[in-house]
Specification:
globular, two-stranded antiparallel sheet, single chain, two-stranded antiparallel ribbon
């Protein structure tokens, strides 16, 4: 039971991180019909910004883990929020009239630039960086399964973030403006909605969510590296496509489904195929996703033409 509990909890944690990344892809596609392939590297920049903030606070002789955690979250969200808005203003919007492949290629190359910049210019950026453990590590034994307080806090925080974004999209004036732009940008302009401001805020929101996912990933594994956003970005995009690109609920379901496939692969592959490492869980998960996409090309929850965000 302890092993099963550990697998289940790992799946929930991974699913939460993937869902937060996938929701960002959905928001970007919803307002501008673009795929921002630098999203995963934006997550990585946010994680490194948070690590730098933690180091800076420690250099000021402030040892409180809660203050350091607050600095990590604020730095990560602010840096990536500004970065996401800047990418939208000076890269995505100017290419709005161009073919979609132009935006895809430009953001893909931008992601490579950000990744290599961190690797080259961050101190010892080529190697994995230890991420500080800032949450309580007390644990409760449940049938042989040690439920750690920090993992519970991370899981509940991820749920709160997703619930908060859902509330913002569905219950606020900004959310109404985002949904209006997603449904018909030109009509939204005629109704007096500031199209560019809504786009910039949406990109800032999605990038901020990615930063929080990066911080959660660092706190969960206690390390980050310059490549962390590469796989998370691909998985987040696959989760968004699997759930139905343009649908927030689909992105969340896709994230947890992909994590479930990884956990299933890591648990069953070594038992079915001797001497195969559990690292092949990614191969198994992507293979199943390919089959599901061939079966349901529109995603598990098809995008509605009347409401895409």
């Amino acid at each position: 039971m302890s092993v099963i509990g550990q697998y289940v909890f790992n799946g929930l944690m991974l699913g939460m991180i993937y869902a937060m990344v996938a929701v960002g892809f959905t928001l970007f596609f919803g307002v501008l019909d673009v795929i921002k392939f630098s999203h995963g590297d934006t997550l990585m920049v946010g994680a490194f910004a948070g690590l730098s903030a933690s180091t800076g606070v420690l250099m000021l002789d402030i040892g409180s883990p809660w203050i350091r955690l607050l600095a990590v979250v604020l730095a990560a969200v602010c840096v990536t929020g500004l970065l996401g808005a800047a990418i939208a203003k000076w890269l995505v919007l100017p290419l709005r009239k161009a073919p979609a492949l132009n935006t895809l290629l430009a953001t893909l190359m931008l992601g490579t630039v950000m990744r290599e910049a961190v690797r080259l210019f961050y101190p010892d950026g080529s190697n994995s960086q230890p991420f500080p453990s800032l949450l309580p590590t007390d644990s409760i034994d449940i049938g042989g399964f040690a439920l750690r307080a920090d993992n519970v806090i991370l899981l509940l925080s991820g749920l709160a973030v997703i619930a908060g974004v859902h509330f913002l999209i569905t219950r606020t004036r900004l959310g109404m403006a985002i949904r209006a732009v997603a449904q018909d940008g030109e009509t939204a302009r005629l109704m007096g909605i500031n199209f560019e401001a809504v786009v910039l805020l949406t990109f800032a929101l999605g990038s901020g969510m990615a930063a929080l996912a990066g911080v959660m990933n660092g706190l969960y594994y206690n390390e980050i590296n310059f490549n962390v956003g590469l796989l998370l970005g691909v998985i987040g995009f696959a989760a968004a496509i699997l759930g139905g690109l343009g649908n927030i609920y689909g992105a969340i379901i896709g994230g947890f489904l992909f994590a479930g496939l990884q956990v299933l692969g890591s648990a069953t592959l070594p038992a079915l195929i001797p001497n195969i490492p559990s690292a092949y869980k990614d191969v198994f998960a992507f293979a199943v996703v390919i089959i599901l996409m061939a079966w349901k090309p529109t995603g598990l929850i098809a995008e509605k033409s009347s409401e895409r965000v």
